[in-house]
Every structure is written in structure tokens, then in C-alpha cells.
Design goal:
Elements: H1 2-18, H2 23-30, H3 34-41, H4 49-59, H5 63-66
Helix pairs in contact: 2-3
Length: about 80
């Protein structure tokens, strides 16, 4: 579901910016390449649940808070 990946990525980016963390800094703390973090934030990749938890822990929030609300996800029909 590409819309879900984009919405999740946008939420990760928003939280990162809210905290004043650079994309490079977040990637380093999460143990991923900066370009991969960029792809996550743009919704170009589907991340694992494990990676979601690593990112949320690094951002100091619950993983569920990064997931988009069901109402935000429109069908790709």
C-alpha cells in the first residue's frame, strides 16, 4: 500500500523535524544509510516492524504515534 508508506514517511519526517534532528543524524542513530532514511521519509520503501520500532525509539515516541490514522489512508483502487 504505497499511500500507507508515504503517510508513515511523512509522519516520521514531521516528528524528526519537530525534534530538530537532521535526516543524517536520525539515520546514524537508527543504523541505516542516509539515503535509505530519505527513501523511508518519501514513502518509497516499506519498512519492517522492527525498523519502525528502532525509529520510534530514536525519536522518543511510541511506534503507533507514527502510524497514520485509518481515515488518512485512501483506497488505491
Amino acid at each position: 500500500m504505497k499511500i500507507l508508506a508515504k503517510a508513515l514517511g511523512a509522519n516520521i519526517r514531521a516528528k524528526r523535524k519537530e525534534l530538530g534532528i537532521s535526516q543524517d543524524g536520525l539515520a546514524l542513530e537508527c543504523g541505516v544509510d542516509r539515503s535509505y532514511m530519505g527513501r523511508i521519509e518519501r514513502g518509497e520503501v516499506n519498512i519492517t516492524v522492527e525498523k519502525l520500532y528502532v525509529i520510534s525509539r530514536t525519536l522518543g515516541c511510541e511506534a503507533a504515534s507514527l502510524l497514520p490514522a485509518l481515515a488518512e489512508i485512501k483506497s488505491e483502487d
